[in-house]
Amino acid sequence: MNKYIVKKALKTPQFMILLILAIILILIPVLAPWTAPHDPLQDDFANFMIPYSKEYPLGTDQLGRCILSRLIWGGRTSMLVVFVVVAVTALFGIVMGITAGYVGGWVDTLLSRFTDIVVAIPSTVFVIALVSVLGQGLKNTIIAMCLVGWTEYMRVTRALVMSIKENTFTEEARLGGLSRGMLIHRTIVPNIMPYLLVNITQDIGANLLTLSGLSLLGLSSQPPAPEWGFMLSQGRQYIQAAPWLILYPGLAIVLNVVIFNLLGDSLRDILDPRYEKAKRKRRKLKKWLETE
Fold first, then answer.
1. What is the pLDDT of residues 225-265, one digit of tens each?
2. Which fold has domain 40-265?
3. Spatial separation of the C-alpha atoms in residues 88 and 78, rounded to whole Å
4. According to the 3-state scheme, what is the secondary structure of 48-76?
5. In sequence order, which residues have a C-beta less than 8 Å from that of residue 101 and are 6 or more positions away?
6. In 3-state terms, what secondary structure has residue 248?
7. Is the peptide bond before 243 cis (omega within 30 degrees of 0)?
8. Residue ranges of domains in the chain
9. Which residues of 127-137 are buried (b: 16+ CB within 10 A; e: fewer)?
């Protein structure tokens, strides 16, 4: 099944274009020491708040720092936090979902009710409250976001596992002598991961928005480290005199959210059987129009 999905994805132009764009968006901040033209923390008061120059293509901020360099290094901070949060929440939620869905019984009831309790609390309000209690900073932001971000993974994984464990091939593997651990590792996990990748991909954009919102409120990243949300927070004070201070960080956030959300949508279409049916109908309609 996995090989089939990979081949299908490679033959889908939309998915490949979005995948290439997502990789580029990740590589630019990862290679920040080489892609950033200036030191993001270096002040240059002789060139403060200029909109454009050959030396500073995107202008400078209120301290004369290169906005392009701060965007690149800020992307490194923002994306690192987002990927850490997504990795931790996905791992924790998937493990809980597999445990609840496969074991069932009182274990399933206990884990499901605990998940319902966490879901009942508005996630954004909960994160803001936790950061306020734990203190400002990226470390506490990561902890707070991880504590509330695993619930969707748990629910989706539990539903997938409960569906797959009743299938014929799972029962045949169990009768073939596979232990519970090997059955989960070889049969269940490979069949649920393609669908969970959709949630993981789209969760990148959602967590980026949450992180940017916290930084905008002054609860996450602290000066002088560059971070997209914090750049928005600082730039809003100069929105009339220097609108580019919030324009470029805002565009960076929007671009990343849109690309990763579209990538998740494209992957979901590939995994959806109805996508193939719609594709065949479009081909038939195209042939019919050509013959007319």
1. 788 988 888 888 888 888 899 999 999 999 999 999 999 88
2. MetI-like fold (1.10.3720)
3. 16
4. CCCCCCCCCCCCECCCCCEHHHHHHHHHH
5. 108, 157, 158, 159, 160, 161, 162, 165
6. helix
7. no
8. 40-265
9. bbebbeeeebe
